[in-house]
Structure formats: C-alpha cells, structure tokens
Amino acid sequence: MSLAKQNFSNVVEDALNQQISLEMTASQTYLAIAAYMGSDTVALPGLEKFFNEQSEEEREHAQHLIDYQNKRGGHAVIPSVPAPTSEWASAKNAVESALQLEKDVNKNLLRMESLAEDQHDPQLVNMLRSKYLKEQVDSIAEIAKLMTQLNRVGGDGLGLHLFDQTLLKSGVKGVIGQV
Known about the structure:
Radius of gyration: 18 Å
Mean pLDDT: 93
Structural class: mainly alpha
C-alpha cells in the first residue's frame, strides 16, 4: 500500500486507468490519421501537421494522468492499445472520426467527474474541471469547426487544397478563428 494514498478509492484509480487508456487510444488514432493525411495518395500536409499535434497532446494527457495517479498513491496501468484504423474514405471522414473520438473522451471524463464526486474525491474533481473538461469542450468545438469548413469547401479538389494550405501556414486558429 502506498504511503501517499489518501482519500483515493480503487474505483477512482480504475477509472483513471481507463482514461489513460482512452488518451493513449486517441493519441494512436490521431497519429494514424496524420499518417493517412501525409500519404502520397492523400497529401494534405496541413491536416497531417494538425493531427500530429493532436496526437502529441493526447499523449501528454495520458502522461499527466499517469503522473497524477502516482502522486495520489495509485498504480498506473499502461495499456496495450489496439492498432487504430489506418484508412478512411476521405479527409472529411477522418475528421468526423476524430470528432466522435473527442466526444467519447469527453463523455468518459464527465463520468469520471461524477464518480469522483460520488467517491468524495474533491482533488480529482478539481483536477478534471481545471485541466480537462474545458479543454475537451474546446477540442470538440475546434474539430467541429474544422468539419464545417471541410463541408463548406467540399471533399476534394481546389477548395480542399486551399483549406489545407491555410491550415499548414496559419494553423487551426487561422482556419477557424478562436474557439
């Protein structure tokens, strides 16, 4: 038993490990999307860069949760992550997958917040609210706006090329504005 463990239930510890797994899955999925966007058959370097950045951000979330688990006296379980899909019908389809993934991660974070409240764990509730929940809403809004822009420019051709070049040069804020 950890000497640091206090007011940190096994149920909450298991939920944190589940979230670590989700964050790692998201990271791997975004890496797969980046690889797809960077392939010579898709060749969208702006979306490739965006999803590489998203992959790194999700990996950092997993690392933060591992560090938090250790700080609280828990036992972080590093998951085996199944290989994500590596092919999509289109760039639009890949971004739709990313949007659904962000919503799934958000749903799990909200479940974990509720569980932490039920387990009388104010430290975890505070950490989730201050670090993850607002950021998750912002990520969903950001990807939803990317989706709207992709719908507007069409799924192929010059519009998609110009969209991607703007994303590459100006980043996501240059394409969608502030979230």
